[in-house]
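Review this today:
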Amino acid sequence: MSAKTRALGGGAAVLLAAGLGAGPAMAAPAAREAANAPNAAKATSATCSRAKRPGRVVVVRGMPTTTRATARALLGAGVRCDAAALTKRAERDKTRLSFGIVTAKEFFALPEKETKYRYLVDALVKARPGYDKTSHDYVWPRLAAGDAYLDRSAWDEAVAAGLLTKAQAAQMRRDGTGYLGWRLAISDRGEWRFFIAGD
């Protein structure tokens, strides 16, 4: 199954990183969410790749508040390394997490076997999302949306976000596979559709 969707056309991204965004569209700091979650699992950089590293969600104009709210919730859980919260949300939304058979609890188990938490957070805070008009999903990064893989700048954005290396990007472009790195999608109703890598 491919997680590619259609790229957002013409909408300018609103960067909500500290010091780079302002206005009513600004997402709540993940650090604030972390402070309001006393029951979050305790994690350190030794067990979780994004422990206590806050940021702000990158959104696009016109993104529904429901989508933004889910993105903020995922970001908050990601920087807290809150496996229980991510597992609960994934189970509720029936989020696709792999192309094989793996439970949400297994996927988010700590300590990590892969740096999934880092990719989850980095996709949300460093990558511009694209929009699929058919499925009504917002996809981070936009490189995973529809034919955005034809846009060299979309590849550059994903590399700059740390979602893949220049060498990996060059290999995927040569192979014609499109983007196969980590990407996530949230519907315009706030449902967490997928967080996945590969094809």
User: Anything to note?
Assistant: The chain has seven helices and six strands. The two ends are 6 Å apart (CA to CA).
